[in-house]
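Tutorial handout. Part one gives the primary structure; part two gives the three-dimensional structure as tokens.
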Amino acid sequence: MGSPANAPRRAPLTPLPPHPGAPVVRPHRWKTVRRFVRARAGLFGLGLLLCVIAMAIAAPVLAPYDPTKQEIINRLAPPMWQEGGSSRHVLGTDQLGRDVLSRIIWGARVSLGIGTLAVAISTTAGLVLGAIGGYAGGWADNVIMRAADIQLAFPFILLAIAALGVLGVTYVNVVIVLAVSGWVIFARIVRSETLSLRERDYVQAARAIGASHARIVRQHILPNLTPTAIVLATLELGRVIILESGLSFLGLGIPPPATTWGNMLAEGRNYVRDAWWLSSFAGLALMLVVLAINLVGDALRDALDPSLKID
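Part two.
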């Protein structure tokens, strides 16, 4: 039987207000931000890294001189606070009279640019190949992992010497060599993560309802690999910047007159006793940038790791 026509209507249900002691539910992304903000070292590293990036972008405005301008009459001038120094060259000049401060500012642009491009390429290649190998398995996994093992068997310096000796030392070739050296790290770690993800219940359910493999990888595998890839890319950036400086120090990096921190270290090694500032300030800049990147990477790892209960 239906309800009587004159029966009173029920008021719509309204949600009860939360209990004062009940926990507040926040989106997952805000929890991640809160975890990162609580990491004081990560915030310090992020601030320092942003300052270096801003300095590199604004190099034409911030640099007091052209980094390639030579003034032989002012060669090997000490920093302004040392005897014989001048406020015209705050950090002194090198053996050709070029301003050290201007070269450090412009060197940040080259080092960060090469590192960012190389890491972007290696991250993309390693993420795709690792996901394919871990999800597909079989011959595809064997081919990708054996290629990774073969590359790991060669020391990086020998690989760089051979590749750059054949291809030539150019900006593009240096980026390619550095990218090739880093994809293995991403591929091996992403593969191990994919082997675990493909057995999860939601992946099995998607496979049971007829979802294609490409759809499963795109919507269920890759999104869960993103936090791992971000942390790896952040830490890899510091390693790549060190490698680029090492190649430049050995004469295999960006050739002069381009300004890089590695070139400054190489040019200043013959003047360590008489002109310590030539390599010291470039080495200090390199150390601070890599330290900032590692601090940000550690903070991101702690913030993005769901197994850590940091609230």
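Part three, for discussion. The radius of gyration is 27 Å. The mean pLDDT is 80.
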